[in-house]
Amino acid sequence: MPLTDSGVRSLTATDKMQKKSVGNCLYVVVEPSKKGGGKSFYGEIRFPPGGGGQKVRVCIGPYGTAPGQWTLKAAKDEWTRIRAWSLETGRDPRELNGRGRKQNQDQGPSKTLQDAIDGFLSTKTSLKEFTLTNYRRQLENQVRECIPGATPLRELEWDNGGREKVVALREYIEDRGSYDQAFRVQKVLAQALDYAILQGWMRRNQNPATKQKGEESKHDPKHHPHIQWEQVPELLEAIHLNRCSGHVQSVMALKLLLMTFLRAGALARLKWKWISRKENLLVIPGTTPGLKRTKKTEDLPHHVPLTKEMNALLKQAKQMNGHLPYVFGPVREQSRYPHLDPESPNNLLKGLGYREVLRAHGWRSLPLTAGQEVLKAPHDIIQRQMGHLIGDKVRKAYDKSLMLEERRDFLEQWCKLLVKNGLKI
């Protein structure tokens, strides 16, 4: 049975797209909650009429009572008008859509780029805080630096010169040498303008930031600098001698990073309450920045079985930072972080002479490589300990095994191997 207006109002977003009939081949669609949960109307009709025609979809617009939106009655009236026009003229109903479409009464002032940015960001509450902050900076700082927020959205449509503005934006960022950032900013802008199209503020197929065929980033990706296993003793000696007089917090953090091969972002945010002495285990929540987890779908905690060497270092850190919630405190009083700066391990490596030789993230290749070649450990166990979620979507959804005993055995062998090669706690 077709939905009434109260039925349309009562529809709530789920994790899947919903399509409900409101009568006469007119439908209301509810987007998945992860895409904002917006409701919109569209009609379906065969064109050309008759048995040989193909079913075509005609967008009416977003559901609602605000300017630029459609009530159920208005959508039905518009759909009746479009069908009648198509039958009378023999033309594709989609030609009327977007050109001869009547606008709702009291349309009000046209929407702007700032409206699209604000609306888009308001729908991204499911994103992690770091990602949302990054999106906001890209849109409000970099996009608006070239395209004012007050720019009417109709001026950004492809046919109205919007593509030229987007190309100028990308080239402006590329001129700074930030090729990858230019590509990322354009991608986020495209999402914001897709939101505007979904709301009926821009015409369909007019997004000027959409990636085109053959359009590729000029960014030349490079792997993080890393060393070979034969160079590890020299590195461990350099850390011990600490000729650059690196802060003791940074030195302890770097040593723990070598033993756990955590990403620097997660390492810097470690908290004492995450350590279970009863189980001799460190459990890092999946929402922690640096674990590279997808919020709600893959934000599983990361487990680090603690070894004798790790506990010895944590005991030293406890004597220094036991009054803090974090394992490693900030090095400077004016630090923007309440914990160790995530860049501290890399800064220490630079001070030790490893600027172009090794980065903290590059160290992660050592346990995966030497772990297999030297310790003969299974790569599956090492990857689990690196924080990787193993397998395809099906395996990630159903395989809940942690393999903690095997991971503990590997870490114990790994720490002993580091000590044998010169690591001093």
TrEMBL record:
Domain Tyr recombinase: 222-412
Pfam families attached to this UniProt entry: Phage_integrase (PF00589)
Keyword terms of this UniProt record: DNA integration, DNA recombination, DNA-binding
Matching InterPro entries: CB, DNA_brk_join_enz, Integrase-like_cat_sf, Integrase_catalytic, Integrase_DNA-bd_sf, Integrase_recombinase_N, Phage_Integrase
Signal peptide positions (record): none
Domain Core-binding (CB), chain residue ranges per copy: 111-197
Family statement drawn from the similarity comment of this UniProt entry: Belongs to the 'phage' integrase family.
Name of protein: Phage integrase family
Organism of this sequence: Parasynechococcus marenigrum (strain WH8102)
